[in-house]
């Protein structure tokens, strides 16, 4: 499976982008294969996610356990969505 992180914060190389990479690693146990910082693509690009958003505080996201908790709760749902997408 190829893991891609897509972050759409208005600032390049944002904490949102960093948190997305950390979340991908927590969900899969490895670094993402690719990362896409949407701000570098321009304003005509959009993306969807089959799980609820994860809201983190910008000053504590690197030290709190919310990413690990989210990964534990949603990794099976996201894996199933990927399997369904691959089968269609």
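^ Assign residues to that structure.
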């Amino acid at each position: 499976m190829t893991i891609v992180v897509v972050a759409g914060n208005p600032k390049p190389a944002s904490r949102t982008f960093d948190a997305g990479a950390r979340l991908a690693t927590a969900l899969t146990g490895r670094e993402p294969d690719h990362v896409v910082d949407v701000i570098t693509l321009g304003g005509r690009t959009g993306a969807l996610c089959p799980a609820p958003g994860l809201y983190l505080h910008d000053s504590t996201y690197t030290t709190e356990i919310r990413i690990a908790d989210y990964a534990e709760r949603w990794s099976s749902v996201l894996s199933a969505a990927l399997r369904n997408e691959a089968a269609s």
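The chain has a mean pLDDT of 88.
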